[in-house]
Amino acid sequence: MQENSAKASSPAQAALSLQSIIIAVVIFAAGLAAGAALMRPAAESSPVMVDEAQLRAVLKSVLDEHNFAAAPEDGPDRFALVDDDPYLGEVDAPIVIVEFSDFFCTYCKRHFDQTFQPLLEHYGQHIRYVYRDFARLTPESAPAAAAAQCAFAQGKFWDFHGAFFDNQEALGRDFYIETAAKFELELDVYTACLDDGLYIDEVEIDGLDGQLAGVRGTPGFFINGQILSGAQPYGIFERMIQRELDKVGIAYR
């Protein structure tokens, strides 16, 4: 599978825009009610009613104008947590797996050793696999995550991903630079990226997003928006993936 770095935040942006529109419609409804109340004699005390048909027409008009589809009713948005982090697979794959991980986490390494490759081998044509940082286990967790992001900037994230999990005991500045040399990165650029801490903030944002989404430890996964905690056996991932493929009528056997 090919490494990708395209940013695909349009679903989340659409959701935010839709939320803003709904708020505007609510404010519009409140305005209608207030206007109706002002036009009524002071002696009348019955509730002011807003015409539901009128509200529906206004909402439909706004949605049509902005080309919004109706909100999905078949589950959470699979793209909600993808952000602009490294991923493998097609951008619009029917299965989106978002992993929140720490390169020092032994359970994350177990997932890498036992589950990650089999998933890609058996279902890779259907999966967009996104890696995000939840770098909180050790003082070196965030620098290691940032070091991998520096490699991502030169298109080598997944090489570092594998090297880091294969060599957890060696992680540190010297190893990051050795790995950069091994994979033929521009060393001056890479070293400056490390020294300037260019991606420390990005790593922190990943961790905050994970925490807000419900991640409490590593590894934490979201499969089409459904949370799965811990280094679960391959069979658990397979079952969830097959269930999601069944929903959209994709044969996987």
Structure report:
- The structure is a single chain.
- The chain folds into two domains: 3-65, no CATH class; 87-247, Glutaredoxin (3-Layer(aba) Sandwich), CATH 3.40.30.10.
- β3, α3 and β4 (127-133) form a beta-alpha-beta unit.
- α3 crosses α9, α4 packs antiparallel against α5 and α6 (173-182) runs antiparallel to α7.
- The chain contains nine helices and six strands; from the N terminus they run βααββαβαααααββα.
- With 253 residues, it is an alpha+beta fold.
- 52% of the residues lie in helices and 10% in strands.
Secondary-structure blueprint of this entry?
Elements: E1 3-4, H1 10-39, H2 52-65, E2 87-88, E3 95-101, H3 106-123, E4 127-133, H4 141-152, H5 157-166, H6 173-182, H7 187-196, H8 200-213, E5 220-223, E6 226-229, H9 234-247
Parallel strand pairs: 3-4
Antiparallel strand pairs: 1-2, 2-4, 3-5, 5-6
Helix pairs in contact: 1-2, 3-9, 4-5, 4-8, 6-7
